[in-house]
Amino acid sequence: MPEQPAVMEKTHLINLHAATCLTMTQFINGHHCPKLAHLIVHQLRRLLAHPELEQLHECRDMYQQLLEHWQNITAHLLEQQNRKRPHQAYH
């Protein structure tokens, strides 16, 4: 029997939430990579755009705060990465 669309949406939301938590855990456990931080930002944006969250204002607020936090982390890591690169002179 095929799943109902509402059940599929909820399952997608749960899977997306779990994947986001996993990537955050990987980052916290020492993989301080700008690409991983950017992936977390991308996943949080997908969570915020999910139709199931339209009625869940507390969840939307939480994801919005997390998104802002991870955007700051990503920007900081990219800034650090750019400082470490030697400046190239083009002649």
Question: Can you give a write-up of this model?
Answer:
By secondary structure, the protein is mainly α. The chain is built from three helices and no strands. The protein has a domain of about 50 residues. The protein is about 75% helix and about 0% strand. Helix 1 packs antiparallel against helix 2 and helix 2 runs antiparallel to helix 3. It is elongated. The relative contact order is 0.11. The model has no long low-confidence stretch (mean pLDDT about 90).
Which secondary structure elements does this structure contain, and how are they paired or packed?
Layout: H1 5-28, H2 34-49, H3 57-84
Helix pairs in contact: 1-2, 2-3
Uncertain residue ranges: none
Sum up the overall morphology in one term.
elongated
Structural class computed from helices and strand pairing:
mainly alpha
Q: Rounded to an integer, what's the Rg over CA atoms?
A: 17 Å
Order of helices and strands: HHH
Mean pLDDT: 88
Number of strands: 0
Number of helices: 3
Q: How far apart, in Å, are the first and last alpha carbons? A: 67 Å
**β content, as a range?**
under 5%
Major sheet characteristics: none
Query: Helicity, in percent?
Result: over 70%
